[in-house]
Amino acid sequence: MIPLSLGEIAEVVGGKAEGDSSVTVTAPAVLDGRQAEPGGLFVAFTGEHVDGHDYAGQAGRAGAVAVLGSRPTPLPTVVVEDAQAALQALAAHVVARLRDGLTVVGLTGSQGKTSTKDLLAAVLSSAAPTIATIGSLNNELGVPLTMLRADAATRFLVLEMGARHVGDIAELTGLVAPDIAVVLNVGQAHLGEFGSRAAIARAKGELVQGLAPGGAAVLNADDPRVVAMRSLTDGPVLTFGRAAHADVRALGLALDRLGRPSFTLRTAEASVPLTLPLVGAHQALNASAAAAAGLAADVPLDMATAALATASLSKWRLELRDLAGGATLLNDSYNANPDSTRAALDALAAIEGGRRIAVLGEMLELGDDSEAEHRAVGEYAASRADVVAAVGEAARSIADGAGERAMVLADNDAAVDWLRGHIAAGDVVLVKASRGARLDEVAAALA
Which residue in 18, 65, 278, 386 is deepest, having the highest Cβ count within 10 Å? Predict the structure, then answer.
């Protein structure tokens, strides 16, 4: 965050400063008072059940010096009618102040966004100071919060951008037009909200349409819906993937006994071998996307691959962990859709061990196709796992699809009880579901 006085913030967002207007904010903005840093800004929202303004004191004790909200608080406060709009206006102002010397990278896709964002952050950080989205804070609040973490030293700003409706990404690029737009894929995530893959493609394409003048698009050569987005920009286009026409190709993929990929990244000018410390063949595609975006940002391929070789991911993304008793946990419990679940099942199948146990929960927001998609994932799981445990009644269709290899466990507690009583040395246990199913609780209990 660049230093701004309360009075300056009030002027930027069209609010009124209550309290000492000379107080200067020097640290990032937060929505959770417990996460405030010394010199930080606490943004207070009034929700249906909780009023953030009541936590201004907590934020102050953690170090916050000011509040942005809709009513005065015990801390110096900028009072506005719409806290979300004010947060976004402040973020746009800060990044506009930093624009000279700052390269903004926007990244979207139906799956793999957060993992690829983490890989890209590693690539860019190897070249210059970089700020990137924490976890998957990729919506109308998360993006401006990330923008406000940038300061005068920042040279790369990586913004993961999610969408549940057509127009969501256009709103985000309205805050800051990216210099580089990375589109990973058009899949089935949030299909129930969008209604069709064509609508999902339109939504993801908004990132390319929102490019700054002369900005570069980085597109997945293996996804026809993504490649078609080259028509949405007059600027340069760089492609990645396994296709022969990709500008950055991932070739010669092989997996070790823990399912970690080795391959070669090849461009017209260079060819560099790479082994990732991550689980899953699909990480090769994510790495090729990160390397391509790095090239668009003038990070050489050899520097990018060196960074990728030591990169790590946000929590609960195919985390591999040894369990007491000799079993192995593959924790991919952060979120799920049909495509990402198949990728996780492939990763499970690639790991050497005894039985492969897939603990799967509901995949949300699939609309009218939900039952059929759950059943299809169950069928796929039966080809990749020895045991398929569907957790919760909403996941019963997974068990139906998996047939004789499947069981239904009533809830997370039942899943933990069954696993504790049945897993043995050498077994590999995958835990995967949409965030709402909270299967991270199952993974935590096992670990």
Answer: 278
